[in-house]
Design brief:
Layout lengths: L9 E6 L2 H12 L2 E3 L1 H5 L7 E5 L2 E7 L23 E4 L2 H13 L12 E2 L2 E2 L2 E6 L5 E6 L3
Parallel strand pairs: 1-4, 5-9
Antiparallel strand pairs: 2-3, 3-4, 6-7, 8-9
């Protein structure tokens, strides 16, 4: 991949409690939290979680909405989750994520096959919600 190739950098999720959300993503999903202590100390506006070396999810508290003034109507977006976020994982990690979610009591959907995505048709996928109602799809493409 070249430096000039467009990439997905981050997505902002509205959450009720960013510290609790970061803990969920760390323990149940297995993602690395970032800037949680700084957020708790009031040094940054929100924490994030790292998906991979190029992509993060920002965990914006609903109280952050008044600062969303970059476009008309941005303030009103608080509390409106996106349809879903899809995470692509290798086979072993896919299985480990599903098991970890079930261990944490997170309801998961059945396994779907052949759903189309960025890399073609996925071998298998399932869906789950975070504590704020944001929907995630986990998928595995044949290696």
């Amino acid at each position: 991949m070249t430096k000039n190739t467009m990439r997905f950098d981050h997505l902002v999720l509205w959450v009720a409690d960013p510290v609790a959300a970061a803990a969920f993503y760390e323990t149940a999903v297995g993602l690395e939290p970032m800037r949680v202590a700084e957020f708790a100390e009031g040094k940054v506006a929100f924490p994030s979680i790292r998906v991979n070396e190029e992509t993060i999810l920002d965990l914006a508290p609903h109280s952050f909405a008044p600062r969303m003034t970059m476009l008309p109507g941005s303030v009103e977006s608080a509390g409106h989750p996106v349809n879903h976020v899809c995470l692509s994982l290798p086979g072993d990690d896919f299985d480990a994520l599903r098991a970890r979610l079930e261990e944490h009591g997170v309801p998961v959907s059945g396994i779907d096959t052949g759903l189309s995505g960025a890399r073609g048709d996925a071998t298998r996928s399932f869906y789950f919600r975070d504590p704020d109602g944001n929907v995630f799809e986990a998928r595995h493409y044949e290696d």
